[in-house]
Every structure is written in structure tokens, then in C-alpha cells.
Give the backbone structure.
Amino acid sequence: MTTDELIALSNKYIMSTYKRFPIVLVRGSGARVWDSNGKEYLDFVAGIAVCSLGHSHPKVVEAIKKQVEILTHVSNLYHMEPQILYARQLMENSFAHKAFFCNSGAEANEAAIKLARKYAYENTGKGKYELITMKDSFHGRTMATVTATGQTKFQVGFAPLLEGFKYVPFDNISALSDAITDKTCGVMLEPIQGEGGVKIPDDKYLSEVRRICDEKGILMILDEIQVGMGRTGTLFAYEHYKVKPDIVTLAKAVGNGFPIGVMMATDRVASAFQPGSHASTFGGNPLAMAAALATLETIMNDGILENVRKVGAYFIKRLHEMKNKSSIIKDIRGRGLIIGIEISIEGSQIVNACMDRGLLINCVGGNVLRFVPPLTITEKDVNAAVAILGEVIMDK
């Protein structure tokens, strides 16, 4: 079929929940993808921070191939070796002691919300159920997680929203402290706001959140769905701030494209979940866990984190060189390989022009260009992306 025919069928049979670009991607390898017309693109979106090892990474492909020939799925009524092996590896490299597996970031955040409320119920009684989240945050599209999301545009048309959520400005400790009441059971936030515009808090912010949570006897929940699994140059973003949260959620990069969500917690908090408290039919199935284990082992053992730190710093340096020559670039912010360029014009025109030239990038908040390429990206790839981006920006 031609590209036009495929897009016509998509429009006919698939709900219009996405504003899709007029291309059909059919193949990927490393940091590159190809469309149905054979055009090649340098991919600095990576499935929105999902394909952390690049497309079709050989170790992940091999792990999935091997597992699918052995056991694809059984119920969580039974123990599964790949799930156990992955859980051990993840827990031994994190603050946490226990994991719950699901299929997406929204599900992981749903599990975190339920666990926080259940923990408060078990330990303090029925009246402590409220979660404080941040303005401009993004936590998912289910009813609970869209309510937790501090952006009205995602909530329009879905009223009534769930009870028990309160929003405060990000990176504002006094506002957080003032919002806590005897109904508060926890604080839920992203270490870096991705959908909110690649907003990075003050270096002391998360440690102050931890201090307040300890003082008030409430839980600290970090949504690392976009910034976890090496994106910032450490396996988890919380490591930069030298804090230990109570709950962390993961998804996106966990399986390098295979749908997986993880909610992990300390023993103290995890004990609030007992058999029957929560479940997921497909969560942690052997195929998903094989992909996750291969991804994690590659990140930990193949120099990926060092590459993120090195190439991320190089990318930001090149972008600052561009900023010095451009009147539309207002700010550049990032950590590792999550980077944002705030511009003074509508970002969609930059995204479209880059795509026409063979570079895939993303825009959030209307005017922040977001870059979340594979963590395996090279300085040569960065130079190619900067060359295209520079041509486009200098035209504006």
C-alpha cells in the first residue's frame, strides 16, 4: 500500500486520539527509522524516551526471541523465573525492596496512588488519603492519573475528577509545606518535569521534599517514568539529589519498547499490599521480563550511563553555541539526555521543518523543543541533529 492509502485507513479505523504526522514509520535500527517511502530519519524522540538502547537493539531482540520460544505468558497465580530474576536485579540496584509489575506508566502511577492510600489507611486510619502533586506535572491518562496531572488541558471533558488531589507549584518548598494537612498521605512528583517543559528543580529541592515528608509522616513518591533507567546519566534520577524516596514508578525505557510498567517501594511501604490488594493480568509476564532484564543489564554493563553523561554534556554545549547565534532561543535546560530548548515562537513549525529534513524531535508546552534520543546516541549523531536544527532555527 502507498503511504496515502495507509494513512487513509488509519483515519478510517483508528480513533483520533493522536495528532499524527503524515508519515508511516516501518523500520528502525539504532538511532534511525525509515518510513514507508524509504526516507531515513535521525530519531531524537525514541518513542518519547522509550527506546533507550535504540531501535531493535540486538541484545533485547535476542532475549525476546529466546523467551518467546520457551514461555510467553502465564498467570501471576504462579511464580515466573524471568520475573524473579529481573526483580532481583532491579531491587539490588535501587533504594527499593519490592516491585509490582504492570504494563504502562499510567498503571504504575495508579498502583503508587493505591499503595500510598492503602499504607495510610493501614497505619493512620481512613481520613488520610490526599496526595499533593505539582502544577505542570504529567502522570498519565487514566482517571486517577489524569487527576494527579497538574495540567487542566488534559482534564477538560472528564469531570468529575477523583477526589483527593491537590496541586502546588513545582520547585516551591514553602507552597508544598503550606498545602499539607492532616488528610495528606503523600507527595507525588517528577524529579524533572518532562511534559511540563523539561523543568529541572533546584539541587536542594528533592532533599527538602524528603525532609518535609519525614517531618509530616507522609510518603515521597517519585514518577521516574520519563527520566528513570539512565536518561539523566544515573540509573535513577533521584540519585542526583542523594535522596531515598518511598515509592518510585517506572515505564517507558524499562523494556526498550516492550510495554512494561514498574512500581517499586521499600519493605515498610510495600507491606500495605497483600494478596488481593492489587493485580495485573499481563504485568510482569515472562516475555516482558526478558526484555526488561536484557535492557537493564545492557544499561548497567555496556557503558551506557557514561555515554549519557558524556554525549549529553556535548549536546548541551553544541546547543549553547547555537543559542549564541539565534534570537529565538530563550533557554536551554537538561540533564543527561533529556534536554529542552525554550523558544520564543510556536515550536510545531520547527518540529515540522526538522522532520522534512530528516530529524525527528518533539515539542511540549507549545514552545519547548524536547530531545530524548536513545542513550546510545553518538557525538556524530548529535552533530548531524544540530546541523539540521541550526538550519531550521536560523531560517526563523
Remarks:
- DSSP finds 13 helices and 15 strands in the chain.
- The longest strand covers residues 329-335.
